[in-house]
Design goal:
Blueprint lengths: L8 E4 L5 H13 L4 H39 L12 H4 L1 E5 L5 E6 L3 H7 L12 H6 L10 H23 L2
Antiparallel strand pairs: 1-3, 2-3
Length: 169
Amino acid sequence: MSDNELPTVKFGVNLDAFNQVRAAAQALADAGMPEALAEFDREFQQAQRLSRQFVLQAGAKEVDAAQKLESSLVGHSKSRYVPTGTLQGSIKPEVSPDGLSVSVAPHATTAQVKQARGGKADGKVTPYGPFVEFGTYKMAPEPFMKPSGERVANELKGDFENTVRRAIE
């Protein structure tokens, strides 16, 4: 991981397994049951819609968890990091164009943090999140993205199974 790589949590839904179901529905349609393919298409559209909703909810849960963790654990005299709220407020979700995955990362830059501390922004666009998450030679690491991602992933395990069940009801 490079120094400027953002600490990112990613969640996604892979609908590739539906290809096998589509093939089975197509075989049934070819055997004289055209309604099988129509039923598959309805259920697949439902699965896509529910998966996109699930991804949005996963992103929102991760933003919330990461912001809370960053606010409560990072800094507070454990390191030289002085919380300004800039890093916390920069934690945002980015949803893929197909809506089936989301990446959540802190997007604050060193310039924004300097400005929040009353200094002059130097225009540098160096990401600040990696310094806090992974530490530097001057500052101990204070991870907030990885622990929040692990916590949210554990919470989401059963949620997705329920989403799939709803799609095929």
